[in-house]
Known about the structure:
Elements (H helix, E strand, L loop, with lengths): L5 E4 L4 H11 L28 E6 L4 H12 L8 E6 L11 E5 L7 E4 L3 H4 L7 E3 L8 H12 L17 H12 L3 H7 L43 H10 L2
Parallel strand pairs: 1-5, 2-3, 2-4, 4-6
Antiparallel strand pairs: 5-6
Helix pairs in contact: 2-4
The protein binds zinc ion.
Amino acid sequence: MDIFSCQIQNTVEPHLSYAAATQERESNSPQDKSIPQTRSVGSHTRYWATGRTLKIAIMRLDDALFDTVKNAINQWAPYVNLTFEFIDLNEDDELYEGDIRIEISPLYNTVARSLIGTDALAAPSYSATMWLGTNSTEATYEAVAIHEFGHALGRLHEHQHPDANIPWDREKVYKALEKNHGMSRATVDATLFPLPRDNNATYAPYDRHSVMHYQVTNDATLGDWEQLTNLQLSEGDIAFARQMYP
Length: 246
Ligand SMILES: [Zn+2]
């Protein structure tokens, strides 16, 4: 059962996350109703200030891998009012430079990771904020990088949309993820299954073709339902990006 490919990192203290988000962009506060709020696990969104330059530091293991990651991130560029500036992540520096800091290691070949949006501002600057594998010959490598950068822009998982109607075979999924990844039932609930509707948020329609959707293999569902890895930004992803960063 190959469904778990990314783990959101919620390692930032909630009050630091809130302070960083609202200092960066006032409308990240759930009290501000002047622009539509999009959904969030917590009570605030974590979007970057519109129009700003995002400094993106990528570990340069080799030029080809650097360019692969950079090109994946640049898929988002036409649809967001942000300027991407790419630099090398220099491990010799005591404090890493870069708003978003991407570590690349075989450790993350199975499960990639990222902080959500402005949580990167609250993370210590000696640590990365996004983690990718090195298996760039895999057909889905670029898709994983696009997905992780979606998190870095502040997006959450589409398969956890409250209206996600995936007919999960829950007991089978619990057993498989415990066996393969040592995940508890609570962790599976928090990672995979739909989240309750947040009244502070407005929602785009559930989009199974979103890059922010996990691959769902047929053996994880009841009946005949599967969603293979989405390789490109969907119409919904593009609309969402434009709404987040007008
Ligand atoms: Zn993810």
